[in-house]
Predict the 3D structure of the following.
Amino acid sequence: MAATTSADSAELGADYDVVIVGGGMVGASLALQLSYHSSSRIKILVVESFPGAANGEPHGYSPSFDARSTALSYGSRKIFEALELWPAIAEHGAAIESIHVSERGGIGSSSLDRDHITWPALGYVVENAWLGQVFLRALQGCHNVDFLAPAVAESIVPRRRGADIVVTAAGEQPYSVHAQLVVIADGANSALRRQLGIDTAVRDYHQSALIANVSLDRPHRGRACERFTDSGPMALLPLTASEGSAHRCALVWTLAPDQAQQLCECDEADFLAQLQHRFGDGQGLFTAVGERSSYPLKLVEAREQVRSGVVIMGNAAHSIHPVAGQGFNLALRDCAALVVQLVEAQQRAEPLGGLALLQRYERQQAFDQQKTIQFSDQVMALFAHRNRGLRLLRGLGLIALDASVGLKKSFIAHAGGLHGGAAGALPLVATDDGAIF
């Protein structure tokens, strides 16, 4: 792989099979899957605007109290196992052994446990910095992948076959490369998506997600918690220990924007007191909080995901509520489904940007996307209502879930990304017996 700050590897007028705009977790994952499963026969360029991605060698890694993290489903583990990357990822991953779901002031709760399934864990929480290290090291071994950073894809010019992409690398004049297929994975506010005139459907939740790492006074024992409150859901996810904290957890707290801002700015003691009051003491006492940040919550869906020579992926295609932690996992399954289509087309010597091929991918993923997006959206809507009758029904629903092993297994299969129609059945995903019973 060429990780470079110049145009040395992506030369003026160069041809690529696939250009991926966005070298974050989705773009890097797609490049790795496509390189590995095509046996390096597909020539790939990744264009990434973040300057930190330009380093030729990964920095040394140590767990950070302020590091941001991602929850990986068991289905995502199977995808990374097929790439032979899972041992490296798991080196700094915290296994989710159980999940506790409750409503503040409600009558019911439910616990999902690893004992209900045959998987080694319900999921895993991994720091984004470590995932980036693993991806970068793996990409450095892909001789068919050029990684250009910092660089910006300024525009796309569709052609009869594929597209031309105008790229500006740091310190260089703009230049053009040609690709059979351009994958746009540059985030929910994608400039290239807007340039192509692709509209989005937006649902503003009028809430913000406050993100921080917190410490507890006792071990988390791999327990994740989802707690619904009158201000919005709260998620607490287990993390590996760091130098700053032996009992670290990642907090996602949904609030009104003004409340989120106030909690980002208040002192640590005030924050911890308010957090303890809202969350309760079921997990123990909160003793410390790291850097706090917040971002507005919106459901953003691209009205088109494919055109001839173009695919929209990741948050550029669907940015969903973090309540169920499914955003990256869904994008990873999208990548797996697209790779199947591209590898088969490459083996048949067909154009990789053909509209019929891309529409097959879109149809294949439609059910998985709709089910995952609707689940996240509807759970948010269900627990937003404060009607007393509905609160009672929600409590009874949690009691019923806790009492039914079958319902628990169905819920776990969905959360694990192995529900019907998901990528767990694809030939490029590492397989076991597939059973959760």
Summary: DSSP finds eleven helices and 21 strands in the chain. Residues 1-9, 433-437 have pLDDT under 50 and may be disordered.
